[in-house]
Amino acid sequence: MIADKFDVFLFDLDGVIYIGSEPLPEAAESLKRLRKEKKGIRFLTNDPCTTREKTARRLMSLGVEARSEEVITSSWLTAQYLKNEKIKTALVLGDEHLKWECQQVGIHIQDQNDVEAVVVGWDIDVFFRDIQKAAKLIQRETKFVVTNADRTFPTPEGPLPAVGAIVEAIRVSTNKKPFIVGKPNPYMFKKALEDFASSSRAVMVGDNPYTDVLGAHQAGIQAILVSDHKMKKFPSARDFRNPDATIPNLKSLFDHNIDIKNGFLLPFLGQRKLKRA
Ligand SMILES: [Mg+2]
Question: What is the model's pTM?
Answer without folding.
Answer: 0.91
